[in-house]
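[step 3/7] fold_predict: job queued, chain A
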Amino acid sequence: MAVDFLAPKFIALYVFIASVVFVHFRGHIRHPFYRQLTDHSTFMAPYNMLMYAFSAVPNKPFVDIGRFPELDALTSNWQMLRDEALKLFDEGHIRAASGHNDLGFNSFYKRGWKRFYVKWYDEPLPSAKALCPKTVALVQSIPTVNAAMFALLPAGGTLGRHRDPFAGSLRYHLGLSTPNSDDCRIFVDGEPYAWRDGEAVIFDETYIHWAENKTDTMRVILFCDVERPLRNRFVARINHWFERTAIRASETENTPGDRVGVLNRIFGLVYYLRVPGKMLKQKSRTLYRATKWILVAGLIYLLLH
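[step 4/7] structure written:
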Protein backbone atom coordinates (compact mmCIF):
# COMPACT_ATOMS: atom_id res chain seq x y z
CA MET A 1 0.00 0.00 0.00
CA ALA A 2 1.37 3.40 -1.02
CA VAL A 3 2.28 5.80 1.74
CA ASP A 4 1.15 9.40 1.35
CA PHE A 5 4.07 11.38 2.74
CA LEU A 6 2.04 14.58 2.32
CA ALA A 7 -0.70 13.38 4.63
CA PRO A 8 -1.43 15.77 7.53
CA LYS A 9 0.18 13.47 10.10
CA PHE A 10 3.45 13.47 8.13
CA ILE A 11 3.34 17.25 7.64
CA ALA A 12 2.86 17.62 11.40
CA LEU A 13 5.84 15.32 11.95
CA TYR A 14 7.99 17.38 9.55
CA VAL A 15 7.08 20.58 11.39
CA PHE A 16 7.85 18.96 14.73
CA ILE A 17 11.24 17.65 13.56
CA ALA A 18 12.19 21.01 12.03
CA SER A 19 11.23 22.77 15.28
CA VAL A 20 13.28 20.37 17.38
CA VAL A 21 16.32 20.77 15.13
CA PHE A 22 16.02 24.56 15.34
CA VAL A 23 15.75 24.50 19.14
CA HIS A 24 18.70 22.13 19.40
CA PHE A 25 20.99 24.35 17.33
CA ARG A 26 19.69 27.66 18.69
CA GLY A 27 22.49 29.58 20.38
CA HIS A 28 26.10 28.59 20.94
CA ILE A 29 25.60 26.05 23.73
CA ARG A 30 23.58 22.88 23.22
CA HIS A 31 22.77 19.60 24.89
CA PRO A 32 24.03 16.25 23.58
CA PHE A 33 21.44 15.28 21.00
CA TYR A 34 20.22 12.21 22.92
CA ARG A 35 19.44 14.46 25.90
CA GLN A 36 17.73 17.06 23.72
CA LEU A 37 15.56 14.37 22.19
CA THR A 38 13.81 13.62 25.50
CA ASP A 39 14.14 17.09 27.06
CA HIS A 40 10.89 18.89 27.86
CA SER A 41 11.93 21.74 25.53
CA THR A 42 11.73 19.26 22.64
CA PHE A 43 8.02 18.66 23.18
CA MET A 44 7.41 22.42 23.39
CA ALA A 45 9.50 23.17 20.29
CA PRO A 46 6.64 23.87 17.80
CA TYR A 47 4.92 26.22 20.24
CA ASN A 48 8.16 27.99 21.07
CA MET A 49 8.95 28.48 17.38
CA LEU A 50 5.72 30.50 17.16
CA MET A 51 6.85 32.65 20.09
CA TYR A 52 10.28 33.26 18.55
CA ALA A 53 8.77 34.12 15.15
CA PHE A 54 6.48 36.82 16.59
CA SER A 55 8.67 38.07 19.42
CA ALA A 56 8.67 41.87 19.71
CA VAL A 57 12.06 41.78 21.46
CA PRO A 58 15.30 40.43 19.95
CA ASN A 59 15.84 36.68 20.19
CA LYS A 60 19.05 36.96 22.18
CA PRO A 61 20.20 35.42 25.48
CA PHE A 62 19.92 38.73 27.36
CA VAL A 63 17.22 41.32 26.65
CA ASP A 64 17.58 45.04 27.34
CA ILE A 65 15.71 45.65 30.59
CA GLY A 66 14.91 49.15 29.37
CA ARG A 67 12.23 47.56 27.18
CA PHE A 68 10.26 46.79 30.36
CA PRO A 69 9.84 50.13 32.19
CA GLU A 70 6.99 48.72 34.29
CA LEU A 71 9.54 46.58 36.12
CA ASP A 72 11.29 49.67 37.50
CA ALA A 73 8.83 49.48 40.40
CA LEU A 74 10.43 46.20 41.48
CA THR A 75 13.97 47.52 41.25
CA SER A 76 13.18 50.72 43.17
CA ASN A 77 11.60 48.66 45.97
CA TRP A 78 14.33 46.03 46.19
CA GLN A 79 15.09 46.74 49.85
CA MET A 80 11.47 46.14 50.87
CA LEU A 81 11.49 42.92 48.83
CA ARG A 82 14.77 41.89 50.47
CA ASP A 83 13.38 42.50 53.97
CA GLU A 84 10.33 40.30 53.34
CA ALA A 85 12.48 37.63 51.68
CA LEU A 86 14.96 37.45 54.57
CA LYS A 87 12.11 37.31 57.08
CA LEU A 88 10.70 34.34 55.16
CA PHE A 89 14.14 32.71 55.19
CA ASP A 90 14.59 33.28 58.93
CA GLU A 91 11.20 31.66 59.56
CA GLY A 92 12.06 28.64 57.37
CA HIS A 93 9.60 29.37 54.56
CA ILE A 94 12.15 29.55 51.71
CA ARG A 95 12.71 25.85 51.29
CA ALA A 96 12.62 22.86 48.97
CA ALA A 97 9.32 21.31 47.92
CA SER A 98 7.85 19.03 50.58
CA GLY A 99 7.37 16.22 48.04
CA HIS A 100 7.58 15.44 44.34
CA ASN A 101 5.03 18.08 43.40
CA ASP A 102 7.12 20.71 41.63
CA LEU A 103 7.98 19.30 38.21
CA GLY A 104 9.48 22.54 36.90
CA PHE A 105 12.23 22.67 39.54
CA ASN A 106 12.35 19.15 40.97
CA SER A 107 15.98 18.52 39.98
CA PHE A 108 17.14 21.83 41.51
CA TYR A 109 16.38 20.77 45.07
CA LYS A 110 19.07 18.09 44.96
CA ARG A 111 21.62 20.91 44.59
CA GLY A 112 20.39 22.95 47.56
CA TRP A 113 18.22 25.42 45.62
CA LYS A 114 15.17 26.67 47.56
CA ARG A 115 12.18 28.87 46.80
CA PHE A 116 9.03 30.56 48.07
CA TYR A 117 6.31 31.16 45.49
CA VAL A 118 4.57 34.53 45.45
CA LYS A 119 2.35 33.76 42.44
CA TRP A 120 2.30 31.30 39.55
CA TYR A 121 0.32 32.35 36.44
CA ASP A 122 -2.70 33.08 38.60
CA GLU A 123 -3.70 34.83 41.79
CA PRO A 124 -1.02 34.98 44.52
CA LEU A 125 -0.73 31.93 46.73
CA PRO A 126 -2.69 32.18 50.02
CA SER A 127 0.53 31.57 51.97
CA ALA A 128 2.19 34.49 50.16
CA LYS A 129 -0.71 36.81 50.92
CA ALA A 130 -0.30 35.96 54.60
CA LEU A 131 3.49 35.96 54.84
CA CYS A 132 4.75 38.63 52.38
CA PRO A 133 1.81 40.98 51.72
CA LYS A 134 3.91 43.93 50.53
CA THR A 135 5.62 41.79 47.89
CA VAL A 136 2.26 40.40 46.77
CA ALA A 137 0.77 43.90 46.41
CA LEU A 138 3.76 45.13 44.40
CA VAL A 139 3.87 42.11 42.09
CA GLN A 140 0.12 42.28 41.51
CA SER A 141 0.40 45.92 40.48
CA ILE A 142 2.40 44.89 37.38
CA PRO A 143 0.17 43.00 34.89
CA THR A 144 3.07 41.65 32.81
CA VAL A 145 4.48 39.69 35.77
CA ASN A 146 2.96 36.22 35.37
CA ALA A 147 4.90 34.48 38.12
CA ALA A 148 7.16 35.45 40.99
CA MET A 149 9.12 33.74 43.71
CA PHE A 150 12.04 34.26 46.04
CA ALA A 151 14.85 31.90 45.01
CA LEU A 152 17.89 30.93 47.08
CA LEU A 153 21.15 29.45 45.83
CA PRO A 154 23.29 28.36 48.79
CA ALA A 155 26.99 28.96 49.29
CA GLY A 156 28.82 26.52 47.02
CA GLY A 157 25.60 25.72 45.16
CA THR A 158 25.32 25.05 41.45
CA LEU A 159 22.55 24.51 38.92
CA GLY A 160 23.29 22.27 35.94
CA ARG A 161 22.83 23.15 32.30
CA HIS A 162 19.19 23.22 31.29
CA ARG A 163 16.60 24.89 29.10
CA ASP A 164 13.28 26.02 30.46
CA PRO A 165 10.48 24.69 28.25
CA PHE A 166 8.22 27.73 27.77
CA ALA A 167 9.12 30.64 25.46
CA GLY A 168 5.95 32.63 26.11
CA SER A 169 7.70 34.44 28.93
CA LEU A 170 11.11 35.87 29.74
CA ARG A 171 12.99 35.54 33.03
CA TYR A 172 13.63 38.48 35.37
CA HIS A 173 16.13 38.31 38.23
CA LEU A 174 16.51 41.04 40.86
CA GLY A 175 19.37 40.74 43.33
CA LEU A 176 18.17 41.06 46.93
CA SER A 177 20.80 39.53 49.19
CA THR A 178 23.76 38.37 47.14
CA PRO A 179 27.51 37.88 47.59
CA ASN A 180 27.99 40.85 45.21
CA SER A 181 30.78 38.86 43.63
CA ASP A 182 31.69 37.67 40.16
CA ASP A 183 31.99 34.22 41.74
CA CYS A 184 28.20 34.08 42.06
CA ARG A 185 26.75 34.18 38.57
CA ILE A 186 24.52 32.75 35.88
CA PHE A 187 25.56 31.81 32.35
CA VAL A 188 22.99 32.16 29.54
CA ASP A 189 24.15 30.57 26.29
CA GLY A 190 27.65 30.92 27.72
CA GLU A 191 27.35 34.65 28.55
CA PRO A 192 27.94 35.36 32.28
CA TYR A 193 25.99 37.69 34.55
CA ALA A 194 26.91 38.20 38.23
CA TRP A 195 24.06 39.13 40.59
CA ARG A 196 24.32 42.35 42.61
CA ASP A 197 22.04 43.72 45.32
CA GLY A 198 19.42 46.02 43.81
CA GLU A 199 20.32 45.21 40.19
CA ALA A 200 18.06 43.45 37.70
CA VAL A 201 18.46 41.49 34.49
CA ILE A 202 16.15 39.87 31.92
CA PHE A 203 17.12 36.84 29.87
CA ASP A 204 15.56 34.23 27.61
CA GLU A 205 15.40 31.08 29.71
CA THR A 206 14.88 28.84 26.67
CA TYR A 207 18.58 29.22 25.91
CA ILE A 208 20.70 26.72 27.84
CA HIS A 209 21.74 28.31 31.12
CA TRP A 210 23.36 27.30 34.38
CA ALA A 211 24.42 28.94 37.64
CA GLU A 212 27.11 28.75 40.30
CA ASN A 213 27.77 30.29 43.68
CA LYS A 214 31.44 29.79 44.44
CA THR A 215 31.30 32.02 47.54
CA ASP A 216 30.57 31.32 51.20
CA THR A 217 27.43 33.51 51.12
CA MET A 218 23.93 32.51 50.01
CA ARG A 219 22.25 34.29 47.13
CA VAL A 220 18.61 35.39 47.35
CA ILE A 221 16.84 36.96 44.38
CA LEU A 222 13.36 37.85 43.22
CA PHE A 223 12.68 35.53 40.27
CA CYS A 224 9.84 36.45 37.88
CA ASP A 225 8.35 35.22 34.65
CA VAL A 226 7.49 38.26 32.55
CA GLU A 227 5.17 38.22 29.54
CA ARG A 228 7.14 38.03 26.28
CA PRO A 229 6.06 40.99 24.11
CA LEU A 230 4.59 39.69 20.84
CA ARG A 231 4.00 41.50 17.54
CA ASN A 232 0.69 39.82 16.70
CA ARG A 233 -2.46 40.12 18.81
CA PHE A 234 -3.80 36.73 17.77
CA VAL A 235 -0.56 35.00 18.75
CA ALA A 236 -0.62 36.94 22.04
CA ARG A 237 -4.13 35.61 22.71
CA ILE A 238 -2.91 32.06 22.01
CA ASN A 239 -0.11 32.61 24.50
CA HIS A 240 -2.49 33.94 27.16
CA TRP A 241 -4.74 30.91 26.71
CA PHE A 242 -1.78 28.54 27.02
CA GLU A 243 -0.60 30.31 30.17
CA ARG A 244 -4.07 30.09 31.75
CA THR A 245 -4.32 26.36 31.06
CA ALA A 246 -1.08 24.37 30.72
CA ILE A 247 1.33 26.64 32.61
CA ARG A 248 -1.10 27.43 35.42
CA ALA A 249 -1.63 23.68 35.85
CA SER A 250 2.00 23.40 37.02
CA GLU A 251 1.48 25.53 40.14
CA THR A 252 2.45 24.07 43.50
CA GLU A 253 2.39 24.85 47.20
CA ASN A 254 4.52 26.67 49.73
CA THR A 255 2.53 25.31 52.65
CA PRO A 256 -0.44 22.95 53.04
CA GLY A 257 -3.55 24.75 51.89
CA ASP A 258 -2.00 26.20 48.74
CA ARG A 259 -3.31 24.71 45.52
CA VAL A 260 -1.31 22.06 43.66
CA GLY A 261 -2.01 22.02 39.91
CA VAL A 262 -3.05 18.92 38.02
CA LEU A 263 0.29 18.57 36.22
CA ASN A 264 2.13 18.46 39.53
CA ARG A 265 -0.33 15.95 40.96
CA ILE A 266 0.32 13.74 37.92
CA PHE A 267 4.07 14.30 38.28
CA GLY A 268 3.93 13.07 41.87
CA LEU A 269 2.54 9.76 40.61
CA VAL A 270 4.80 9.48 37.56
CA TYR A 271 7.90 10.15 39.68
CA TYR A 272 7.51 6.83 41.44
CA LEU A 273 6.97 5.06 38.12
CA ARG A 274 10.40 6.39 37.10
CA VAL A 275 12.13 4.65 40.00
CA PRO A 276 12.75 1.40 38.03
CA GLY A 277 14.25 3.49 35.23
CA LYS A 278 16.61 5.22 37.65
CA MET A 279 17.67 1.84 39.03
CA LEU A 280 18.33 0.60 35.49
CA LYS A 281 20.39 3.73 34.75
CA GLN A 282 22.57 3.08 37.80
CA LYS A 283 23.22 -0.51 36.71
CA SER A 284 23.80 0.12 32.99
CA ARG A 285 23.66 3.48 31.23
CA THR A 286 23.93 1.71 27.86
CA LEU A 287 20.88 -0.46 28.52
CA TYR A 288 19.00 2.54 29.96
CA ARG A 289 19.65 4.64 26.84
CA ALA A 290 18.77 1.76 24.52
CA THR A 291 15.47 1.26 26.36
CA LYS A 292 14.69 4.98 26.14
CA TRP A 293 15.39 5.04 22.39
CA ILE A 294 13.18 1.99 21.85
CA LEU A 295 10.33 3.67 23.73
CA VAL A 296 10.73 6.87 21.69
CA ALA A 297 10.79 4.91 18.43
CA GLY A 298 7.70 3.00 19.53
CA LEU A 299 5.87 6.23 20.30
CA ILE A 300 6.71 7.65 16.87
CA TYR A 301 5.52 4.43 15.23
CA LEU A 302 2.20 4.61 17.10
CA LEU A 303 1.69 8.25 16.09
CA LEU A 304 2.22 7.47 12.40
CA HIS A 305 -0.01 4.38 12.23
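[step 5/7] annotate
The chain has a mean pLDDT of 90.
The radius of gyration is 20 Å.
exit 0
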